[in-house]
Amino acid sequence: MGGAPKSANSDDTFGKLMRVNAWVRGERPAFRLKEYGVWRSWTWGQAYQETRALAQGLLELGISSGDRVAIAGANRPKLYWAITAAQMLGAIPVPLYSDAVAEELGGVLEHAGARLIIAEDQEQVDKVLSILDRLPQVERVLYEKPRGLGDYDDPRLGALDAAIAKGHEKLADPRVAEAMDARIEEGRGADPSVILFTSGTTGRSKGVVLTGERCIAAARDTVAFDNLTDRDEVLASLPLAWAGDHYLNYAQGYVSGFCMACPESAATAAEDLREIGPTFHFAPPRVFEQLLTRVTIRMEDASRFKRWLFRHFMNVAKRWGEKIINREPVSIGARLHYALGRLLIYEPLKNTLGFTRVRVAYTAGEAIGAELFAFYRSIGLNLKQLYGQTEAFLYVTAQADGAVRSDTVGPPAPHVEIRLSPEGEVQFKSPGMFVGYFEEPEKTSEALTEDGFVKTGDAGVFEPDGQLKIVDRAKDVGRLADGQLFAPKYIENKLKFFADIREAVALGHGRDYVTVMLNIELASVGNWAERNGVAYGSYQELTAHPDVATLIMRHVEAVNQALAQEPAMAGAQIRRFLILPKELDADDGELTRTQKVRRRFIAERYGPLVEGLYNGAHDAAISAEITYEDGRKGRLEGRSRIHEMKTFGMEATRPRAAA
Amino acid sequence: MSEALLSLDNVSLSFGGVRAISDVSFDIRQGEIRAIIGPNGAGKTSMLNVINGFYHPQAGTITFEGKTRKRMRPYEAASQGIARTFQNVALFKGMTTLDNIMTGRGLKMHRGLIWQALRHGPALEEEIKHREFCEEIIDFLEIEAIRKTPVGKLPYGLQKRVELGRALAMEPRLLLLDEPMAGMNREEKEDMSRFIIEANRRLGATIALIEHDIGVVMDLSDRVVVLEYGRKIADGPPEKIKADPQVIAAYLGVAH
């Protein structure tokens, strides 16, 4: 592992890499920014000169090797240059989440011990100034956009542009320039290159320390994996502080020499995407979902003929699109039909979304619905999944072109070693692997196994084709009484992909079989009831209707069928389920405020129902305290019917699967 | 104190037998934010219409930048640097945000119609120059995302912002705002207040505004004039107005 030996001392830091780009492709565009309605570009040559000047400017401000330089703001060329400028000096950039509140920023800045803060605009400066009293080690705050800062008089405040100008002025002296070049040359790939703070969903965020040589080695692998070159272009709109941006845009950009275009503002990103037409794109599943919703809504407003055309060709795409993109054999007729659809629907649609030139698109972060995933792939977008971690400097697994599935995250990325612990936890070693958490050795050793693998905290299984499937958080995964793997969230997610099912709670740890308690989705089931002449007076009444039960049973059966296809999961099919008479609600403590089910709490609260699910009864009664919207309390009395489910092929897999 | 940019002396205006404004005098100083408040029908909008030459008062004089006049047409007012927005947004609904703001530059374009239609040579250069100016306004008002959206499709709060943008595109000496925050929610009001303050401080526009939200008025303005039934009943800094018993009785409601 470690830096590639062939070029170990020529380009093992981002500062050196930028210089190489300035030599090799000095005239190629490196950065773009839309400002005042116009795209402005900087070549690698220009960007290098500006960055080097900024490095000199920071040096003049007393920044030197090992100092931490915090950067708060959106994706802007100058902020990327600030990252590289700090790296040229051997200082360590610490990008911050620009939407974090002052309090959170304070915590990170304090922990990182930043001496200098570079803030994008007045908004960021205000946040920083409000906590500066607590941060005695901060000497200077530089801002990029002067607007609104005219009458600020804090002596620590200064303009980033002034630092760059100062640097240019100093570098005019050949001796100074020589010293700066020597400084860049002295940079060591084994030294910390950046500290990326985890988003901190579980407790205080930790600073992940990455080194230059490892970052660059990892990026080289994936640049080769996806054939990225300096002809590629991305729209850099992911948060600077997130490993996704630092990897996909920054590291891959410096390694391959592609162009990073920075949007005018977060609100214009969709339009900027269309104008730039990137060739490499990343977005979380949520964004792809919102895009599809927007398309669907706009199609509903279209004329009847257009609606028909859209529906017709989307069906064609559904049938043949994925097969064509996966290079499977497809008949000539179908190919022609699809080609017509491309001309009339798919290409114009991709153009509207800004995806016309995309060669490689990735999504990651959460489970993506099979239908949603298939939609984008069927219109010819090469959308793939990856699984990553900040501690890995992103890539752990990635899907190769032509071997893409919606329910897996791909085989190990190049040079990544993955293994599953006996408990099913995914553990890895990767080229970009972190060297530790910043000043928290005990947490570092907690995160690593004795032989140096990183523990991800995620439970996964390998599919027969070698692709990894993430099933749940490792701590939530249990086993049935017979030792069968039981991943509640995996089953719940499968159920929730049905529009009729709003929430699901899967039970089974330590039990003989899996059972599920469900919430129906009122909007969708209500609509169905209306169309099918099912009368109901309340949510509770609707849940108890036998026709609704039949409807839901079909979905559960489909899930069982899907589970039966998966050797590792086949034993965890749903045997019995019930529909809860009330909606799970955060006000009652059943969901977290971010709408995640609190499984343990629910199992306790609905104890009698759980008992009914496992004692063979046909129904069970519940009486629970509920909180109304206005805070008043009431009691809910209800009975739920318990439904038996058919399972598929259980006998074949019953004998303990070789898990 | 700085000098008056505009002063109204003994202005009276009536429509037939209805007296909209009777014998009102006040001035607007260079660089200030001046609020005009009063109950419905007090003559506030009529006052703005008098200032920008839409109505011609039967009596009294208006002095703008030292020049006294009795009659002036709206386009003359505009070419002298008086811009305004309207109580009910008056934009070109089918045109984009950018195009609407560009219309605010109309008086500053000097190339002939033919040149402009051909969009060539000097006319193109001129257009680029004006476009740059409009882009600065778009940046200032943070409306980049709707640059190319037809304004008819925009929510009301944004339309108000676009209208302010068009007025600012005129580089006005005096900006008249007729209820810039009517029908807005709290957040939109805060944004609009920020833009008004910035337009005043940074772009140097003197501003006269009509507003019903008293909290906003008191926060924003340097001086307030209060009208009731077409007459001026108070004039002064916000603290003084808040304490004025006549204003409280007429406008803010009598304390019980």
Considering the chains and any ligands shown, give keywords for the structure:
heterodimer, A: 659 residues, Rossmann fold, GMP Synthetase, Chain A, domain 3, 3 domains, five-stranded parallel beta sheet, globular, disordered N terminus, disordered C terminus, B: 256 residues, alpha/beta, 10 strands, 25% strand
Structure description:
- Chain A has 22 helices and 27 strands.
- Helix content of chain A is 40%, strand content 22%.
- Chain A is α/β, with parallel strands linked by helices.
- Chain A folds into 3 domains: 215 residues, 3-Layer(aba) Sandwich (Rossmann fold); 191 residues, Rossmann fold; 177 residues, 2-Layer Sandwich (GMP Synthetase, Chain A, domain 3), CATH 3.30.300.
- In chain A, the strands form 7 sheets. In chain A, strands 4-3-5-6-7 form a 5-stranded parallel beta sheet, with helices on both faces. A 5-stranded mixed beta sheet of chain A has the order 23-24-25-27-26, sandwiched between helices.
- In chain A, strand 5, helix 5 and strand 6 form a beta-alpha-beta unit.
- In chain A, helix 4 packs across helix 5.
- The N terminus and C terminus of chain A are likely disordered.
- In chain B, helix 3 packs parallel to helix 6.
- In chain B, the strands form 2 sheets. In chain B, strands 6-7-8-3-9-10 form a 6-stranded mixed beta sheet, with helices on both faces. Chain B has a 4-stranded antiparallel beta sheet with strand order 2-1-4-5, with helices on one face.
- Chain B has 10 helices and 10 strands.
- In chain B, strand 4 and strand 5 form a beta hairpin.
- Chain B is globular, with a radius of gyration of 19 Å.
- Chain B folds into 2 domains: 166 residues, P-loop containing nucleotide triphosphate hydrolases (Rossmann fold); 82 residues, Rossmann fold (3-Layer(aba) Sandwich).
- Chain B is an alpha/beta fold and 256 residues long.
- The mean pLDDT of chain B is 89.
- Chains A and B meet through loops of A and helix 5 of B.
